[in-house]
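Milestone M4 deliverable, item 7.
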Amino acid sequence: MISIIIPSEGVEQPVVATLAPLVSGAAAGLVRDVVLVERTPSEAVAHVADVTGCRFIRHQGSRAAALDAGARVARAPWLMFLHPGAVLDGGWIEESAQFIETVSLGGKPCAAMFCYARSPYAKGGIGQSLHRLFRLIGGASTEQGLLIAREHYERLGGYAGDARHAEAQLLAKIGRAGRIMLRTRIFVPA
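Output delivered:
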């Protein structure tokens, strides 16, 4: 039902943290496949993909281009984009399944994002305080993950990999009225 796409920078620890809560989604039959898109020549994430049974592709270019490359090889009719290090809280399976069912029955295209939660392990300080203030003012961020029907994603043009701020541009195309905020929290490392 869902293909999950995770871009990486050659560091396995954040990828493993993101994968951990997805195991229960695969066991429940919600997650069809996970695509790890490596943007560096490192072999660390290739090893993680091999051990966990994820699909692995290598793609040079921006993070948005990597996300789009992952979407092109994904198998499911629904796509979930997650940044490495972002960890979904419990309950994401039921809420995601309910969202997909509601949108599928409703006929109106809609995307969903998870509720931002600062990681309890994030560093404090003035920089982090400014980052939190920016999040309050700026609204939704691609760090919060994105759950969208493949058909809707393609109709919007997906992530334009060569465009500046391509991830923010896709959110703008979806618009505030075209997305909902799920109750499930996503812990973001920054």
